[in-house]
Amino acid sequence: MPTQEQTVLPRVSRTIEDIRASVFGYVESVQDSLAARGYLPARLNLNKGVVRGLLEIFCWGYWQIYSLLERLLTQATPSSATGAWLDMHAASVDLSRRAATKARGNVRFLRAAQGNLEANVTIPAGRIVRTMPDGAGRVYRYGTQAVAVLPAGADFVDVPVEAEDYGAAANASAGQICELVTPVTGISGVTNPAGWLMEEGADEETDAQLRERYALQWQANNGCTKYAYMAWALSVPGVTSVSILDHHPRGQGTVDIVVRGADVLPTAALLDKVRAAIAPNTPINDDWLVKGPSAVSCVIDGAIEYTTGDPDAIRAQAENRLRALFAETSPLADVTALQIGQDLTLDLLTHTVMAVPGVKRVTWASPAQDVLPVPADGVACLENLSLSAVMAEEM
């Protein structure tokens, strides 16, 4: 189906070449008539000279008007507006762009083996911990928020930290935070255990996400429909997508609001914020439940046969593409992240890898089945990824 931009913009958009041909064609067609009436002393030379220069300036100004019309039309409707223009449309329905937030959680400080086990260790506020550089060379740093004490006899203590940078990139996976930048006497190292996040870091709301909420704001006016629940849930910073199960998931009169966060599986704090956003708006007879999606673990083990290229580069590119399937928002334009309730198929895995230049064939040892079923309130989560790359045999 053609979009509004595809169908409307060409009607008010003209190229400079089109305008030049139109203007010069018109002047050429009326020269004799104007000269006969005495408006012109002689035929104009349209190839060079002052007249050519004046007409070129006129054509440029004419083209600027059409360019302005095209830009104004793009920004005049919420479906195609961007940036500050879209913010203005959103404000007209009492919406504002969700701001970026910082990741907050508990990092584990480990007692030094040679330290005195019977002594308390004070960890001052403002101590910096960080991740090792990722594949793009980025390092994420976190600071302790308050003074903490590793009590005598304990091997570790979990200390609240906050990311220095805003955004979802700081939602480190378990074990990624492993370096103590500012030393603490009596502490040998740090780590972030599974479930360390208390509040997800979230990126600033994108134009596409704000457009979705703008449309939901109108659809939500029809009563307490699934669109209303979606609008309420998506108003919470950190919520990136939501699925409404309204076909009596727990019996008659029930509705489940399944929420994804910036780190896919939401924290308890984020779910509490969604409940607080929904509670004042729902009818008294609605039996609603806010929850995160149930994780369906996926182990991927495959062998890539390639015809040309570097095997390490091919394997790395294939791994990046497969990991994008399981991200909250895919960083790749041609890879769409798996959604709540979406089954994982071998065909999808193969399609994702075959886009890597040089790949001839992919065979999968895991998953063993053609379709990995995911329930309506579930989401596929990558547990382990292992790929090998071998040169394809000549036939």
UniProtKB/TrEMBL annotation:
<dbReference type="Pfam" id="PF26078">
    <property type="entry name" value="Baseplate_J_M"/>
</dbReference>
<protein>
    <submittedName>
        <fullName>Uncharacterized protein</fullName>
    </submittedName>
</protein>
<dbReference type="InterPro" id="IPR058530">
    <property type="entry name" value="Baseplate_J-like_C"/>
</dbReference>
<dbReference type="InterPro" id="IPR052399">
    <property type="entry name" value="Phage_Baseplate_Assmbl_Protein"/>
</dbReference>
<dbReference type="InterPro" id="IPR058531">
    <property type="entry name" value="Baseplate_J_M"/>
</dbReference>
<comment type="similarity">
    <text>Belongs to the Mu gp47/PBSX XkdT family.</text>
</comment>
<feature type="domain" description="Baseplate J-like C-terminal">
    <location>
        <begin position="309"/>
        <end position="387"/>
    </location>
</feature>
<feature type="domain" description="Baseplate protein J-like barrel">
    <location>
        <begin position="116"/>
        <end position="196"/>
    </location>
</feature>
<dbReference type="Pfam" id="PF04865">
    <property type="entry name" value="Baseplate_J"/>
</dbReference>
<dbReference type="Pfam" id="PF26079">
    <property type="entry name" value="Baseplate_J_C"/>
</dbReference>
<feature type="domain" description="Baseplate J-like central">
    <location>
        <begin position="222"/>
        <end position="291"/>
    </location>
</feature>
<dbReference type="InterPro" id="IPR006949">
    <property type="entry name" value="Barrel_Baseplate_J-like"/>
</dbReference>
